[in-house]
Amino acid sequence: MRHLFLLLLFLTALFATEVKLKSVSLQLLWLDQFQFAGYYMAKEKGFYKDAGFDVKLKEITESKNIVSDVENGITDYGIGRASLILHDSAGDKISLLAAIYQSTPNILISLKSSKIDDISDFKGKRLMQTDDLLQSASMAAMLKSKNLKLSDITVVKHSFDLNDLLDKKVDIYSAYISNEPFILKEKGIAFNTFSPQIEGLDFYSDILYTSKKNSEDNPIEVQKFKEASLKGWEYAFSHIEESVDVILSKYNRQNKSREALLFEAKELQKLAFFGTKEIGTLEKAKIQRIHDIYKILGVTTAPLNSAEIIFHMSKIHFNEEEREYLKHKKFIRYCTQPDAMPYSAIKNSKFTGIGAGIIELVHQNSGIEFKLKETKNWDESILDAINRECDILVLASDSPSRRKYFKFTEPYYNEPLVIVTKKSENYILDMHSVLDETFSVVKGNSFIENLKLKYPNLHLIEVENIEEAFALLESGKVYGHINIMMSSAYAMQKYSKLNLKIAGQFDQSAEVSFAVRNDDKILFGIMNKLAKSITREDIQLILNKWISINYTKGLNYWNFKEIAIVIGLFVLFMFYREYFLNKKNRELQELQAELVGVNEQLRTKAYAVTKDLEKAQSIAKIGSWVFDLESQTRTWSKESYKIFDIDPNSKEDLYRLFRARIHPDDLDMVENEYAKSLQERTLYYVRHKLLMNDGSIKYINQKAETTFNDNGKPIISYGTIEDVTQKVSQALEIKKKDTYMLHQSRLAQMGEMLSMIAHQWKQPLASIAAIQVGIKTTVDLEKYDLAVEKEREEFMTYLDERLDKLELYVKNLAQTIEDFSNYYKPNKAAEFLSIDSVVMKAYDLLSESLKSSNIEVSFELNAEYFRDIYQNELMQVIVNILNNAKEQLLEKRVEKSAIYIKTYVQKDEIVIEIEDNGGGISEDIIEHVFDPYFSTKEEKNGTGLGLYMSRMIISEYHNGNISVENSDQGAIFSIRIKNS
After folding, report:
1. Do residues 178 and 105 touch, judged by C-beta distance below 8 A?
2. Among the residues of 495-559, which ranges form H helices?
3. 258-272 and 219-238 helices cross at what angle (nearest 10)?
4. Residue 70: exposed, middle, or buried by beta-carbon count in 10 A (0-12, 13-18, 19+)?
5. Is 636 helix (H, G, I), strand (E, B) or coil?
6. What is the pTM (predicted TM-score) of this model?
7. Where are the domains of the chain?
8. DSSP alpha helix (H) spans, 621-705
9. What are the pLDDT digits (tens) for 521-559?
10. Within 13 A of 799's CA, how many CA atoms are on the CB side?
11. Given this structure, which CATH class describes domain 20-102+202-309?
12. Residue 729 — very low, low, confident or very high, per pLDDT cuts 50/70/90?
């Protein structure tokens, strides 16, 4: 049995190749906690090791740009939020592997005592957030849903100290649903949470990703890392108690309690399986929805290929440049050794041997065509490759002399170098003990150079082939023959009558690669991917077809009992193997049956989704269309046909029917805008009319986005058609109504204007009457003797003075009429005027009325700023506010009534403030004063349109706004106009 043990030990050492683990790094999104338990367990339970990885887990550090580190290879894998898709659409090339949480754990917290009970209450409050919180689609959309902008909130940089919320340094605190709520509950503090999930925004979080380059260059490795990670997560969630124990002992720098970690685990488990039964699910539809939210928010306008950003494992993944290369290359020509079995041979112009199996394998994995360049010997193969008559050498090993002409891929196979001796020689335990002997080698083998470098004194004789080498060995002219193990064993089987054995093995191995011509960088990249795609299992299957090896390791005899035991073990192994294969076949059949069921479910679901989409389009009156510019084919949804009133079953050309339906006035505009969007590579958007068969008019909005290839050629357009006839009709009706109300408001003001005109005419008319009476009295009383020259001259002087005064008063009357008539005329065009001058003109119209009412008006004008102004419209607003102030002061009989008019420039706005000391507006009605038809003076026939029209004038004519608030004295109306 001692001999049997030695034999089994030798075979184990010979066949078992020590797996060298590849060091990779994973950058966590935060400090150690249950949030990353799956990765801890993949490491602790050996899942990463089994996949061939030595994984370093890296906690987050301040100001670390994880995406940049991953893209540049500083870190191999990273974990990120949904905002990762912004990096892809911005040009950063990443591949998403798995979304651990199907809904974001991000929440916002406020204390119950703060009275912040709804998202709309956030306005004007202090929000503590991380730098990328609002880059998270779900959070940003949640705020947007309540019409909140960043400018509405005071943003405070996150301190990660919950006491800042408890001490009321901030009002709202960004948190994780699995962490801070536990702390607050423990403290007995009442709080509110605001979750995107509750708002229906169940977006991904904690997405495992890598660089696009890594996923393309190492697809199998990336897939193995993904699978090992997900296996860790499945274990973590099915063994929560054990996972918590591991974190407490090894990954607990935050000193979290066991209870806190258990709470975190259970909350995160809900999010991991939210809407799915499979951990790590990533759906391109959901990715696209998140991207669409970002576009709505205005964060990005760049397109996203949701199918490309998600990693899908294929045996080999070529980039676009490589795919284009292969398309034009047609096939790759290769050379090989024509007589080197079991590795390589050419028989009847066909490639055979292990190398042929390798070529067939990479052809099946990649679809690339390979073509043999037939040669007579290995030297001719190398020469043809040097002369570029073939692109690659199939079975080649790297050596210094060959690097002048070739680049070598990563080795896809390696095999130890062995020494074949006569059976009479002892087994070689130490290579240095035989270095003074002479050995034969087959010339052309690259390992010869490497051997000479390591053993400079090694005496070698080069031979043409292995048959010649064995002849020298049998004759005793050499001590041994050096070759790779498989080739030696094959030759020993072929020449089985020879009295030879494998007696020793070198430490180094012969590494087998593809040798690629060094002037073709793209081809090298392709072949390197092919080499890395070949697994040890693939090689073993190929080898099994060609050789079975018998080794002698210093054993000179066997007995029958030992042989019988070995045979028995082999038979047992074969029975087990058969049992195992049958079991796996049954499992495969069950999986196939399950797959059939799943496919049927998917077909049913796809049909239901299609029906749901058609229903949604019908309700929203939005159709969709696709135009393939290469094939010139068009596809419309059911609702698109309905909007255009076109029969979906019509055999006529769809584009001709489409053009016929567009209103003749809009046809050129529609086609020109689409052509412009293709030329400038912009979004296509146009509103136009349709002329229906019954003569009616429809209004529609069309939008489209076009994808382009790398050469800038448009490939396909995706568009929508929205029926907005009802919206347009409503808008026209509202505009008509607003015009009517403006006219009604003007008419209402005319009565007040006529009253003002009458008031301002009183004094001039009284003066004219007085002059007329004075002249008449002077004449009647004959104060001047016209017969006397001197008195006649005095009379004429007296008469001229009175006539001049009459002229002045008449002009005053005319100017009053002109001022008010000009004011009533609407401006057809804006004039370049200063705000202060318009304010003074409006005041002049009311100055007499205000003075007669004993109302003092004071000015503080600091807006001598010129811009385009619709003068009369702005004057109408100011007059309306001054009139309202006057009525308020008179009604309340305020002593020392006063109005204060102030203008100034603030940042990019010009501000007009009009304040009175009439005590202000009741808080019950102040928020309604700008509503149409709202009036507090029904008894005075108030229309309730004045302030409503004032707001409309400021908004539509001057791109500004008007507001009111109460001060200590009265009401302050503020008009704000953009200064550009």
Report:
1. yes
2. 521-533, 536-544
3. 120
4. buried
5. strand
6. 0.39
7. 20-102+202-309, 106-194, 621-723, 724-824, 826-980
8. 638-644, 654-661, 667-680
9. 999 999 998 888 888 778 888 877 765 433 333 333 344
10. 12
11. alpha beta
12. confident
